[in-house]
Amino acid sequence: MNLIDLLTTVLAAPLAAGALSLPSPAPADSPADAGPPVLRVVDVTSQGSARHDRLDQAWTDCLIEAGAPTVPADSEPRAVPNSAFSQDTGPVLDWPAPAAAREACASVEPEYPPVLEAATNPDFAAMAQTYVACLEAGDLHVRLLNDENLDWTYRAAYDVPTDSVATEDSCLLGTFGRD
Predict the structure, then answer these.
(1) Predicted TM-score (pTM) of this structure
(2) Structural domain contains residue 27
(3) How far apart are CA 177 and CA 11, in angstroms?
(4) HEC assignment per residue over the chain
(5) Residue 156 and which of 10, 54, 61, 72 are 20 to 30 A apart at CA?
(6) Residue 142 has pLDDT above 70, yes or no
(7) Which has more confidence, 178 or 18?
(8) pLDDT tens, position by position, 115-127
(9) Of 155, 147, 154, nearest to 128 (Cα)?
(10) How far is 93 from 16, CA to CA, in rounded Å?
(11) How far apart are the first and last CA of the chain?
(12) Of 60, 87, 110, which residue sits at a domain end?
C-alpha cells in the first residue's frame, strides 16, 4: 500500500464512521464590520498563501501607521521572518508593538483558523489524533504537547523523513480541510 492509499484509509475511517465531522467551509473574505479576518487552514501550511501574506501586510501597515516602532533595514541581526516587512513602508516592526497600536489594529489582525484549536472546535481532540495517526502513517513520529492545539514534538529514536513538510501539509489539509 502506498502512502497516499494509507493516508486515505487513515483519514476516511473516522469520517465514514461518523466519529468526525469536517467543519463547514469558511465564507469568502468577510466585510470589515464582521470582525478580524480569519485565516484558513491552507493559509498556515508550509507554503503559506498569497491571502495570508496580504492579511499580514495589511496588519503590519496598520501597526506602523498606528505608531509601532520599526527596525532599520540595515540593522543586524535582521529580524525574522520577513513577513513583518512592509512593502509600503519598508522596515520591519520592532516587536512587540505597543499596546495602543495593537489595539488600534485589532480589527485587521488575522486570527488563527478556529478548526485548529480545541477552544473553538468541538471535534478537535479526535481530529488531532487523526492528524497524528496520519503523520505516523507517513513515517513522521510525533506526540502532541498539549490538548489545546497542534503543537507537537518528534518522538525519540525515529529519523525525520526528508519529505516531512509534504507529509505535514498533506495530513493537516486531509484532516482539517482547506478552510
Answers:
(1) 0.72
(2) no
(3) 11
(4) CCHHHHHHHHHHHHHHCCCCCCCCCCCCCCCHHHCCCECCHHHHCCCCCHHHHHHHHHHHHHHHHCCCCEECCCCCCCCCCHHHECCCCCCEECCCCCHHHHHHCHHHCCECCHHHCHHHCCCHHHHHHHHHHHHHHCCCCEEECCCCCCCEEECCCCCCCCCHHHHHHHHHHHHHCCC
(5) 10
(6) yes
(7) 178
(8) 999 999 999 999 9
(9) 147
(10) 47
(11) 29
(12) 110
Asked whether the beta carbons of 24 and 155 are under 8 A apart, the reply is no
- Torsion angles phi and psi, residue 139, rounded to 5: 65, 30
| Number of separate domains in the chain | 2
Residue 59 has pLDDT above 60, yes or no: yes
Q: Averaged over 33-58, what is the pLDDT? A: 91
For residue 157, the one-letter residue type is A
Give the residue from 60, 89, 110 where a domain finishes: 110
Residue bearing the bigger pLDDT, 83 or 101? 101
Residue 137 within a domain: yes
40 and 47 in contact (C-beta within 8 Å)?
no
CA angle at 86 for the pair 104 and 69, rounded to the nearest 5°: 55
Please report whether residue 101 resides in a domain: yes
Average pLDDT along the chain? 81
